[in-house]
Design goal:
The chain is elongated, with a radius of gyration of 16 Å. α1 packs parallel to α3. The chain has one domain. The longest helix is centred in the last third of the chain and has 29 residues. The chain is mainly alpha-helical. Helices cover 79% and strands 0% of the residues. The chain has three helices and no strands. Bound molecules: zinc ion. The site of zinc ion has 6 residues, from α1.
Length: 70
């Protein structure tokens, strides 16, 4: 199981990287395993998802602004 061990710092980096690109299967599994055993990282993941959702909404709003300006 040592292969699947990640520190919180590594896990956080993986979660951020996941926003931009698909992770290799090994990283995805390690991330999943870490989130199961860690108390802190799931909280960070939740914040990251909230941030991503608001970014998407913000992008959506600004696209609408461009449309209405035409
Ligand atoms: Zn952690």
């Amino acid at each position: 199981m040592k292969l699947l061990r990640r520190t919180c710092k590594e896990t956080a980096a993986l979660m951020v990287a996941r926003e931009d690109r698909a992770l290799p299967l090994g990283d995805r599994v390690a991330l999943y395993v870490h989130l199961l055993v860690c108390k802190t990282c799931p909280r960070f993941e939740k914040q990251l998802l909230t941030l991503r959702n608001s970014m998407r909404q913000w992008r959506h709003y600004s696209e609408n602004d461009v449309d209405s300006a035409r």
